[in-house]
């Protein structure tokens, strides 16, 4: 099945998982002539009436094995593990099983820039989209961020560039997905609550390169050795970016600017003074976006304008407020050990880190040296607080908090003027919150409540 011949007209298609991507896939499939059943273990979902009105059959509260076995095609939402027993049985019986990203990509008319990595995907995807738009291109941004790729298909034209954030969950169920430009930002163990081990996680990430040809591009981080290992079999042309490594040809820091280095010398792309983001590690995301923009042919002036107007994403090292001289920063998107480490390394000694949630794998001990060297303190929340104590007790002070209200106030009590409180959970949010975004919003609400009380107390 290719992008030009793939058809679902009259086919029985079951979409498993009724979150954002699954709903978009179901609606797309109906428009393309399929008989669609959308199934979810939840008893009720949003937009039930709208889905039924457009012709989607809903099967809620279960994934019926008979429904799956009788399908011509099964489409998985990213949040649905593909090794579920009922899905495996259907696959063994000959039913084709693909993911939502794969489905949508088969009908796209425009070219795809796909961006993956353990951390930095959303920042890089958003900034890349802005750079390409500033350069005059028709751009649609989405995938694992914002709008599902299935919701972009009807708007796809030959001159569209789709800038797609691609997670391991999306990539592991891909088959023919073929980005023109594939970006691997970095790699470290993550999602080990879903993937069997780090090797399986890496195999999923490597799918981003699997169908590329020598006419395509692979953008790789020369500072991150595991990325090179994952991309070792990629057939695409390579463009490297690096903040530290000695790269003779690629996107690097040269003096006070991001430059494209070649045998002919350095071509200035973006002055470092234009970058408004907290945290040195986010600069690597700007380099990656600049690499994509260079391949596309974006002029340096357009890159600079996009960077100057980009203040970062919500929940990604997002400045919140200063209360009594203490700065509060929201990095709720730091859902794994490596991302939390980058956040910790972004601030001055004496910081207070709010950490915890539902553990996804890795080792909290990997954070100990960075915390100790900064004389940091930790406020532990959620299911993982016992693991946090086991990793840090005797080395780093750990204080427990039962909820975000208490966590913010405990952290404020520990910090001194001039120091920073950062929410860098190193965990998923699902033990206490709907998702990382809700966790970040509640953190910000509690900080602003504290700021209001502090201001009122000072004025009395």
Rg calc: 23 Å
Mean pLDDT: 93
The CATH fourth-level homologous superfamily of the largest domain: Mur-like, catalytic domain
How many individual helices?
16
Largest sheet: 9 strands, mixed
Shape: globular
Order of adjacent strands in the largest pleated sheet: 7-8-6-9-10-11-12-13-14
> SS-based structural class?
alpha/beta
Write the layout of secondary structure elements.
Layout: E1 12-16, H1 20-31, E2 35-40, H2 48-53, E3 57-60, H3 65-69, E4 73-76, H4 85-92, E5 96-99, H5 100-105, E6 111-116, H6 121-134, E7 138-143, E8 160-165, H7 168-171, E9 181-184, H8 198-206, E10 217-221, H9 225-230, E11 237-241, E12 250-254, E13 257-262, E14 265-271, H10 281-296, H11 300-308, E15 318-323, E16 326-330, H12 337-344, E17 352-356, H13 368-373, E18 377-381, H14 385-392, E19 398-400, H15 404-414, E20 420-423, H16 436-459
Parallel strand pairs: 1-2, 1-4, 2-3, 4-5, 6-8, 6-9, 7-8, 9-10, 10-11, 11-12, 16-20, 17-18, 17-20, 18-19
Antiparallel strand pairs: 12-13, 13-14, 15-16
Helix pairs in contact: 6-10, 6-11, 15-16
Task: Describe the 3D structure.
- This protein is an alpha/beta fold and 460 residues long.
- The chain folds into 3 domains: 12-100, NAD(P)-binding Rossmann-like Domain (Rossmann fold), CATH 3.40.50; 108-308, Mur-like, catalytic domain (UDP-N-acetylmuramoyl-L-alanine:D-glutamate ligase, 3-Layer(aba) Sandwich); 318-459, Mur ligase, C-terminal domain (Protein-Tyrosine Phosphatase, Chain A, Alpha-Beta Complex), CATH 3.90.190.
- Helices cover 33% and strands 22% of the residues.
- The chain has helices at residues 20-31, 48-53, 65-69, 85-92, 100-105, 121-134, 168-171, 198-206, 225-230, 281-296, 300-308, 337-344, 368-373, 385-392, 404-414, 436-459, and strands spanning 12-16, 35-40, 57-60, 73-76, 96-99, 111-116, 138-143, 160-165, 181-184, 217-221, 237-241, 250-254, 257-262, 265-271, 318-323, 326-330, 352-356, 377-381, 398-400, 420-423.
- The strands form 3 sheets. The chain has a 9-stranded mixed β-sheet with strand order 7-8-6-9-10-11-12-13-14. A 6-stranded mixed β-sheet has the order 15-16-20-17-18-19, with helices on both faces. A 5-stranded parallel β-sheet has the order 3-2-1-4-5, sandwiched between helices.
- α6 crosses α11 (300-308) and α15 packs across α16 (436-459).
- The model has no long low-confidence stretch (mean pLDDT 93).
